[in-house]
UniProtKB/TrEMBL annotation:
This is Uncharacterized protein. InterPro entries: RNR_small_fam (IPR000358). GO terms for cellular component: cytosol. It comes from the Eukaryota. The lineage of its organism: Eukaryota, Metazoa, Ecdysozoa, Nematoda, Chromadorea. It comes from Caenorhabditis remanei (Caenorhabditis vulgaris). GO terms for molecular function: ribonucleoside-diphosphate reductase activity, thioredoxin disulfide as acceptor.
Amino acid sequence: MYGQEIKDSTLTAAGFYHDTAIGDMSSLGFQKRCLSVHGQGDVQVAANISIDLMNQPRVLLNSCNVKLTVYPNDSKFLIEAFNRDPDTEFRFKIKDVYALVNEFDLADGLSNALEAAVIEHKLIQYPMISSQVRSFYIEPNRLDAPANTLFTSKMPRRIFLGLVDAEAYNGSYEKSPFNFQPHGITDIHVDYCGMSVPGRPFSLDFKKNKFIEAYIQLQETLGHTRNNFSCNSISTKMFKEDGYTIFGFELSPVAQDNSLFELVRQTNISVRLNFRDKTPEGGLYCVVYAEFDQIFSLDALRNPIIDSIV
């Protein structure tokens, strides 16, 4: 979703370097990440906390209690070590973590007016985009994915899907968990509200270069085909074979406008996949990222109220 300028600047402070090919030792991004830690001793990084509450532009009221609990993944999931000695184990060790918080000191008049508004209206509401990540397992030697229903209540704005090797999904030094490959997929569509997206079924054959429609739909879902000044630097070659085979689906007409909300639509969301070749030994995981409209509220006593029906 990020543009190339952000990837080459701000995100490098978080240790991110863009890969032209995922899971490839010759990738410039992988080599830069190696250089940033090899022989450097302790490495300091900084990144935004990517949770719903902090991905919206409004600040919290005063006197709110906020507690953040972070659980790190296994080191095998976090570390790429393609050429390691089999007897060598690597550990991702965190020595210190702290949060930088911006605080606004309001003028007395504005602070009093804000408090009066809270008492009068009883609630202060924060509209935001809530993200949900789901995954489901596809057994080996299958030509289609098992029937599944991912969401059973509110309709998401848009959905992104990708297929990753089961071993990499569970953590492996030798495989990247972000290496999304086509795995011989011929068709993928989302069923909701009695409709299917896309309306015209895909007929994909990545070996014969029949994938452009899915690539354009990904860029459409991200909003990069409707302007000439931003891109995510994913080329057709990268989409085809370099670990960026991610499928995007817009389910809402306001999917890309965070300032607009739709009425809640109750529905079931299902994903269907078909393959030209049998799925590999060990199986695959389909990782699904979905975005929903969400309202977060605070009452006069600063108690949080989340209308979550996802």
